[in-house]
Amino acid sequence: MLVQELELETTLALDEINLADPDFWLRDDFHGALALLRTERPISWHEHPASGKGFWALLDYDDIAEVDKDWEAFSSKYGVRVYNDAGTKVRPGTGALIELDPPYHTVNRKRVSKAFMPRQVGQMEGYVREQARRLVSELSDGQEIDFVNDLAAVLPFEIISDLVGIDPVDRPRLLELSNIGRSEHELDYLDRPEVQQQAVLDLREYGVNLAAKRLLDPKEDLISELAKVQVDGKQISKEELGGYFGLMISAGSGTTRAALSHGMLAFSQFPEQRRLFMTDPVGFERTMAEEVIRWATPLKHQGRVLTEDIVFKGVPMKKGQKIGMWFIASNRDPRIFPDPFKFDITREVNPHQSFGAGGPHFCMGAHIARREIWMLLQELFARFPNTHVISAPVRERSLQSNGFKSMQVRIAR
Amino acid sequence: MPNVTFIDAAGKSKVIDCAVGTSLMRSAQLNGVTGIYAECSGQKMCATCHVYVAEEFLHTLPAISEDENDMLDSTASDRQHNSRLSCAIIIQPEHENLVVQLPEFQR
Asked: What interface predicted TM-score (ipTM) does this complex get?
């Protein structure tokens, strides 16, 4: 088989399933393991093999929705990843929107969110389509590309860079930095964590310098808006500004890159879906994009930290413990998504949790992401309907990012 | 309990039974009305629970808050004089036989 077949059964016993182990996510049967865990133990405790620190894992759709909405008990202030640096210390570069609770979250999100609202994004459609068309026009029949880095990474990054106001000259370096910055569990960087940490700092420093320039000379872009953000009634600090910048860049690029890559793979693995899509690409736009986003689940989980001792669904949990909402499991719940392992672009009702589960942090970039997905894949298959994956994608080694590092694709008419 | 009719953009209608004190948005979700997304679950932050309220019921609705007003300027489908967020409408007895039109797009 040229493309991966994911095993829906698992060879793991229930007690062997450890979501904290980065290598669990590289198994071919991880979906089978998640389905078993979700059915038998929808709330379970997992520990990082190296540090022994752990977290609660929620795999049930309704439990996740409840926790996402209950920001008072399950705070975002102490970090939103269940990585091995568990605890209540705020990691460097945080304080950005994703790590605020109401009321500061609400006030600050409002300040930056206008450009991402449905009407405003609708007005960007022409521009997004132009970018997608331009990228596809540079391809030629028979060409072999790394879909992830040559196509999927480029469109979202260009668009968020335009929105944020980044000089085109600086973009290649920032893309590189944001890639390295997300690679905490990658084997390339395991023995050189300073490289990864430096990339995060460099990205942040760029953001801080850009913000300083815009403070003196504001333009019509997101960074100028972000520079005016206040936290606790005070001018936002450099650390926080840098965190915002990093957040916009990584939220605006890595996730959509993952979605596009999974979408390309799905249309290769399910050619009847691609044929269906091409019978009415405009008619299927919205449902296709939603199914790609469910299928891809670009963030396997988002984390929270307990602010008090509670008993949740009969499970006693303690203040300070981390808890992960595992969308990667809930998005395959047959109770919510009939035939969940079928990639089906005709799903009319598709209440996936890839953009979050209805709490205050629901994805701000969702409308842009949807358009990028439907326009790039539409433009690609319109010109090159037989484009297909030619070698199995290399998965990222991550507890959170559900993307691919590379995937070879042949462009074909 | 008030009956409310939702008419979608294609003209198809669905009548649901609502509980006084719940929002129109939540009532729609509980009764399987498609076309209300409510991505923010009723926090007036997402503009995806947009409805057009029938003329004769406009006077039964609370005043539009600043937050709601901002959202109504951000909806996917055009804002009209009878545009409201369904999460901002709490069902009362006077909403018996309320009719609302769903917009073509929420996002």
From this structure: 0.94
